[in-house]
Amino acid sequence: MSTRDDQPSESANAGGEQVVTPWDVAGGADGKIDYAKLVNEFGCSTIDDALIARIEKVTGCRAHPFLRRGMFFAHRELDQIVTAYEKGEKFYLYTGRGPSSEALHLGHLIPFHFTRWLQEAFKVPLVIQLTDDEKFLWKSLKLEDARRLARENAKDIIACGFDPRRTFIFSDVNYMCTPFYLNVLKIAKCVTFNQARGIFGFSGESNIGQVGFPPTQAAPAFPDCFPHLFGTDKKSLRCLIPCAIDQDPYFRMTRDAAPRIGGYKPALIESRFFPALKGESGKMSASDPTSAIYVTDTPKQIKDKVNKYAFSGGRLTVEEHREKGGDLEVDISWKWLNFFMDDDDKLRTIGEAYGSGAMLSGEIKKELVECLTPMIVAHQEARAKVSDAVVDQFFSTAPRDFDSMFGELVGDAPAPSEGPVSFQGGENLVASNAPVPAVAGGEGNEGDDAGAAAAGGDQPLSKSELKRIAKEKQIAEKKAAKAAEKAAKAAAAAQ
Amino acid sequence: MSTRDDQPSESANAGGEQVVTPWDVAGGADGKIDYAKLVNEFGCSTIDDALIARIEKVTGCRAHPFLRRGMFFAHRELDQIVTAYEKGEKFYLYTGRGPSSEALHLGHLIPFHFTRWLQEAFKVPLVIQLTDDEKFLWKSLKLEDARRLARENAKDIIACGFDPRRTFIFSDVNYMCTPFYLNVLKIAKCVTFNQARGIFGFSGESNIGQVGFPPTQAAPAFPDCFPHLFGTDKKSLRCLIPCAIDQDPYFRMTRDAAPRIGGYKPALIESRFFPALKGESGKMSASDPTSAIYVTDTPKQIKDKVNKYAFSGGRLTVEEHREKGGDLEVDISWKWLNFFMDDDDKLRTIGEAYGSGAMLSGEIKKELVECLTPMIVAHQEARAKVSDAVVDQFFSTAPRDFDSMFGELVGDAPAPSEGPVSFQGGENLVASNAPVPAVAGGEGNEGDDAGAAAAGGDQPLSKSELKRIAKEKQIAEKKAAKAAEKAAKAAAAAQ
């Protein structure tokens, strides 16, 4: 998705109409996004207090600030996920990023911080897609560079604190394999060029890689893309996708395709856009380093940028400010504190002080600097610990134990194992204990043609599966025979 | 390619203009294809006697009837392939089939018989693509059925006599992997929707899988799609593609993309269309079993179909026939004998006798039946011997020895090995002795970003490569240590 990498800031649209697509976000005449209108247009729902309360109750966790303060404000069928979860049904999380820039800015961290919270609250597995293919197709970027950026960005994602025991990170180029490709094909067959043009704004000048790409972002919403995690049964797991609301069109398409390819419609939990440093209608741009705070910025850079560039709702003179108070509607320091300050009481106090004029612009900026600096320093420390071996551990397609990815994890994550790691999936890599398809060849259900039977299932095995097992047995026997021979020789030599 | 599976027969176009695309073939007002016009329009070249003589000289083989009788009549840069070969340069062959039907008809065998001859004459490796993905996207076919048909059709292809030591057959769905996908992406970025619409006739109602498909057929023209065969150097091998001329648009697109992605333009050798049983302007259709001879037909079916349905150039009465002679321009028995009768002298005699009226329609049909029957019986016998294990052998992505695929092969092909076989490629499967990229990061050359260095190369290794090797070494050492431990235990137990 083009804007996964570049969380769009709002800007006024010349025509006065707001435009929100995965590639363009422009506010209405006043430069602002009318989120209520967006929810209405897209046909998604607003997250209400009752739903938040249900989430808190079933997870036993206090809602994340992004949730309780309305940054993640819209959804599709999140209530159904919660209902299913209340009944003991399993689901997994799917999010992603388009790796087109070297360093991430604060806005890029929002979905990952929130996803980590969701994962820890619900204790479920997570897949994170890095769309190096998409970045190559859309940007003036070499494939080798897109692939390198995918690994670099993965380090920042891992630094957000994910656990490798239930988190799989993949680059599309690395992972592309039969089970993934099967889903891409099935989804692609459901969408015409005209439909894709309507959803994504393609034109005759779009390259055919771009036109063919959306199913690649849609596919990970179906668990049988990942037999090494979830087995081969598309009906076995629901999926919940945390993302910014501009990605909604991708997943509307995915949800339309879902019943036709025999899968659950993925549920969505959608965020507002992160406001840019220079003001809500400005842009955070990699070409202008003063437009955003990056995760690589030093404490001095953070302080300088906030003081110089953070758009202020303060008044022209101290006298006027004391009289009218700061304008919370436009003040970026206030808005960012709402994202990153966990302490509700302290936040309320700051808001009251600043809004009443008791607190000056320089003072609220100081609060923001003091909030951001330790957070970014901690991120940098965490990232420094993410070695190549740790990245390999998250990228590894070694089959997992299905059950072990759900519920409480005991102790620390294991150290990355030594030895070569494969990043590519396959039909033969199937998680142990994964659910097996209930009925083969169901109506309109093509989810069962991935071919490889899940290990440990009690379904009748196909001919080719039986053959494969027989062959594996033969190989194992041969190996054993060879080992025995070797041992005998060694024994003879030892005597 | 939509017609790889369904070698198109010619039919009159209502507009009177001939149309030849990978999906539609219609002759001009008279129902016939004007091949000279086609060569001119497409911008390819005619194969002349001098080029055939050069091929015979450099290979030391008499030209195949399809070549010396002009069935394979057009080319692109075939002369350059021959020149390079004369200088000792290597190349590989690439052909394919769209697996949409259960049984192949005679027209389907043409490219494979000819490709086998090319392979044996030039002693080079061959890759055969089965586009199960394409058939799924275009036809009302389940993916599982397209995949099954790919394996079934592979048996007929193998029965044409290919040698597994230098022939790799793959289904797109099975093989889809990083090195393949890298080439698909690079080609896709070079082609706009408008261009693809011009070349392939896509419309707004085409599904986005169809729009995105052409690069998947183009990619195998680049050797680094197959590191397990050819290594990772796109510059190391030229490619020659035997195909019917309706596939020319695919490979025009491929040739346009080639320099932009750092590869050789593939050369082409192109055939006319195989005439349908009921006459050149009829259609061979799977829904009408009397329209073609299938490789599954019994001798009785062959005899009956030829006698009943083969369009005859004979005259209405014996008297008229004796007087005017048979019409060789339209007689299907005569045309088919030109394809399948190897003996030039006998063929000439038949042509003279039939054309002069000395031979009657029933008699030339008898000649055809006697020519076809043993050929089809032999095909059926050969196909019966193609076990699943043999198919696996051709599909296997186990790395080959590069050099061993060129030049004379000694002895018979080995029996298929036991044990599980992987059909999916990967960056880590690299042929031994394969050429390595000469210079990294050359101008416009993205052929070197596949990542995995070829084994045995003397190029400086990348950091990650060195790391991988170190890891592999560690693993090998661990294994050795374990084996030694086991042996010691066994020795102890034996004492």
UniProtKB/TrEMBL annotation, chains A, B:
Localization in the cell: Cytoplasm
Pfam families: tRNA-synt_1b
Principal location: cytoplasm
GO process annotations (BP): post-embryonic development; reproductive structure development; tryptophanyl-tRNA aminoacylation
Gene3D superfamilies the UniProt entry points to: HUPs, Tyrosyl-Transfer RNA Synthetase
Ranges where the record places region Disordered: 409-428, 434-465
Cited CDD domains: TrpRS_core
Secretion signal span: none
Cellular component, GO annotation: cytoplasm
EC number in record: 6.1.1.2
Matches recorded under PROSITE patterns: AA_TRNA_LIGASE_I
Keyword Nucleus applies: no
Sorted UniProt keywords: Aminoacyl-tRNA synthetase, ATP-binding, Cytoplasm, Ligase, Nucleotide-binding, Protein biosynthesis
One of the record's GO molecular function terms: ATP binding
Family, as annotated: Belongs to the class-I aminoacyl-tRNA synthetase family.
Protein name: Tryptophan--tRNA ligase, cytoplasmic
The species this protein was found in: Micromonas commoda (strain RCC299 / NOUM17 / CCMP2709) (Picoplanktonic green alga)
Source lineage: Eukaryota, Viridiplantae, Chlorophyta, Mamiellophyceae, Mamiellales
